[in-house]
What does this fold into?
Amino acid sequence: MTIPECYACDKEAQFDELPPRERVDFDRHWRVAHSFTTSVPGWLVLLPRRHVTAVHDLTDAEASTLGAWQIGLSRALRSVTGCEKTYVVQFAEAEGFAHVHFHIVPRTADLAPEHRGPGIFELLRAPEHARVTAGQADRLAAALRDRLRGRPAEA
Ligand SMILES: [Zn+2]
It folds into this structure.
């Protein structure tokens, strides 16, 4: 079911036309997108493919691949971005973003102390000039997808 003014459902409705950054990878239950408001290269969002607003409403089928997605995306981010670790965070509180979404965020070794932990979210609302561009996000999406699907990285 599509809910008006849900960004995630809006995108799901255009699934076949989505650019790589909005469809990094997917299965029947989940879609992975690169954030379009962040200054952090590789900030991913893992979304259920139907409208769900609370984690407890996810089905057993959705739950069954959630862990594999979280770990798989974390491994791919480590491999592609060289991050030290990833943050995995779910709130579903932002206006227009009540749809459940797990943030999978690469935490690089050089991340400033004030942005570690919850402070990373300041980097999700970056000023336009500081944001990862659509082109950069598309290239990262392609590299991450290769990793996720077991293809060797380009030299
Ligand atoms: Zn939705």
In short: Residues 36 and 133 are 8 Å apart (CA to CA).
